[in-house]
């Protein structure tokens, strides 16, 4: 066992920290207020290799491991969870899915652009009536020989209006249940594919979330990912990796709030001393630190499992379940430690508190993580 980061990992973490502090921090409150997508910053993150972190360099990626991925995600999320969710979805739901399950042609055509940030990707699984119950896909893809015709609606799609490439999950044969589902690559601008209005959200307001409509959208057969009927398994496998990214995001949100609360508590005075000297505040800081460190261990373990080639369905679910709980609970505490200032935007902790909530919802709610974990316990 070795709990130390390598020198290379430290350099990667420091590069992400530096980028977050110099590039993401200055406009983060404005982007949150105005729901502004960080277009230029996404391009810069692409240039730094943050959009194809684990992708093989032969497809334009950075060729790094999952430990590097979570280090980058944590640092970006300490400052701007809207930017980090774009990174997470592009890396683990889109690039990973294409690299692991796509054809060589699909990799050459799409992955090479997604890994460098020339393209942004979106992952379209959720529907008005199929959120947690992902098997109940209402979107249909009818096989017409050399192409499919897709009809349906997808909801809450991250980067929905800004993406260039969409991975769309749809039902091709409802009698086969989860074995009748496929995943398709749909390009923006395909006739019949319409982007609905942008959602006005509680948190991660700088990310771009939309409903998407598919009305007789013609998709060539070569854009189906993997064998016929493999789409549900594809979605579950990519989501297992996605949950590592979101767990690291939750960790970063919690750690960012903790760092701000610690600093504030050493500066703010009440009753004749810095508030960190009051046990009521000191014990909050201790609880935050312990929980964040425990979350970090679970996140690292899930990333390590992925790097080792171990199954990471359960370790990623555990990491996301716990880190998102820690993020929600301790961002509330960080606001409390800041008192009245915590309620004011310029102190950043209220934004982190709002951003934390979604980590308990997307890429599988906390209740879904408990289904994944408990089913595996019972099976063993
Ligand atoms: N790997 C491989 N295969 C898997 C798998 C996995 N991780 N999980 C399930 N499967 C297989 C099962 O073995 C089963 O196959 P067989 O029929 O051959 O046995 C098949 O898939 C169906 O599995 P279940 O019976 O377990 O399916 P279920 O209907 O009970 O649902 C679930 C399982 C875990 C609840 C699943 O529906 C789920 O994960 N739901 C949550 C969906 C989700 O995370 N949505 C997030 C949206 S994406 C998003 O948020 C992105 C964003 O923009 C940020």
What would a concise description of this structure say?
It comes from Gelidibacter maritimus. With 380 residues, this protein is an alpha+beta fold.
Describe this protein with a few key phrases.
10 strands; 15% strand; Butyryl-CoA Dehydrogenase, subunit A, domain 2; four-stranded mixed beta sheet; 52% helix; globular; Butyryl-Coa Dehydrogenase, subunit A, domain 1; Butyryl-CoA Dehydrogenase, subunit A, domain 3; 380 residues; alpha+beta; binds acetoacetyl-coenzyme A
What is the CA-CA span between the terminal residues?
25 Å
Q: What is the residue-averaged pLDDT?
A: 97
Poorly predicted tracts of residues: none
State the CATH architecture of the largest domain.
Up-down Bundle
Count of distinct strands? 10
Order of helices and strands: HHHHHHEEEEEEEEHEEHHHH
CATH topology of the largest domain: Butyryl-CoA Dehydrogenase, subunit A, domain 3
CATH H level of the largest domain: which superfamily?
Answer: Butyryl-CoA Dehydrogenase, subunit A, domain 3
Q: Give the helix level as a range of percent.
A: 40-55%
The helix count comes to: 11
The largest sheet has its strands arranged as: 1-4-5-8
Instruction: Provide the β-strand percentage band.
Output: 15-25%
List the bound ligands: acetoacetyl-coenzyme A
Q: For the report, how would you describe the main beta sheet?
A: 4 strands, mixed
Query: What is the highest CATH level, the class of the largest domain?
Result: Mainly Alpha
Total number of distinct structural domains: 3
Content-based structural category: alpha+beta
- Characterize the overall form: globular
């Amino acid at each position: 066992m070795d709990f130390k980061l390598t020198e290379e990992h430290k350099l990667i973490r420091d590069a992400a920290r530096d980028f977050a502090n110099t590039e993401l921090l200055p406009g983060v409150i404005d982007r949150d207020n105005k729901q502004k997508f960080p277009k230029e910053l996404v391009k810069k993150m692409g240039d730094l290799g943050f959009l194809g972190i684990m992708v093989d360099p032969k497809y334009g990626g950075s060729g790094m491991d999952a430990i590097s991925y979570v280090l980058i995600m944590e640092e970006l999320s300490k400052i701007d969870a809207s930017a980090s969710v774009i990174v997470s979805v592009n890396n683990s739901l889109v690039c990973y899915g294409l690299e692991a399950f796509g054809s060589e042609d699909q990799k050459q055509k799409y992955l090479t652009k997604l890994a460098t940030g020339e393209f942004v990707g979106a992952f379209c699984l959720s529907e008005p009536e199929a959120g947690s119950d992902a098997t109940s896909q209402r979107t249909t893809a009818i096989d017409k020989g050399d192409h499919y015709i897709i009809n349906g609606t997808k909801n809450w799609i991250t980067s929905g209006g800004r993406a260039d490439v969409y991975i769309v999950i749809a039902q091709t044969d409802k009698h086969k249940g989860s074995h009748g589902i496929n995943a398709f690559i749909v390009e923006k601008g395909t006739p019949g594919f319409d982007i609905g209005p942008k959602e006005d959200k509680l948190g991660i307001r700088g990310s771009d979330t939309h409903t998407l409509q598919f009305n007789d959208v013609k998709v060539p057969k070569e854009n189906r990912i993997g064998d016929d009927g493999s789409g549900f398994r594809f979605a579950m496998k990519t989501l297992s990796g996605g949950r590592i990214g979101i767990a690291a995001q939750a960790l970063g949100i919690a750690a960012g709030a903790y760092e701000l609360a610690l600093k504030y508590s050493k500066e703010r005075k009440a009753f004749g001393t810095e508030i960190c000297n009051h046990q009521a505040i000191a014990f909050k800081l201790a609880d935050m630190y312990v929980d964040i460190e425990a979350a970090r261990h679970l996140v690292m373990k899930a990333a390590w499992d992925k790097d080792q080639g171990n199954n990471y369905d359960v370790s990623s679910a555990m990491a996301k379940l716990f880190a998102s709980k820690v993020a929600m609970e301790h961002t509330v505490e960080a606001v409390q430690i800041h008192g009245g200032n915590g309620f004011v935007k310029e102190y950043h902790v209220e934004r982190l508190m709002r951003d934390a909530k979604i980590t308990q919802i997307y890429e599988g709610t906390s209740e879904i993580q408990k289904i994944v974990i408990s089913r595996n316990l019972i099976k063993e």
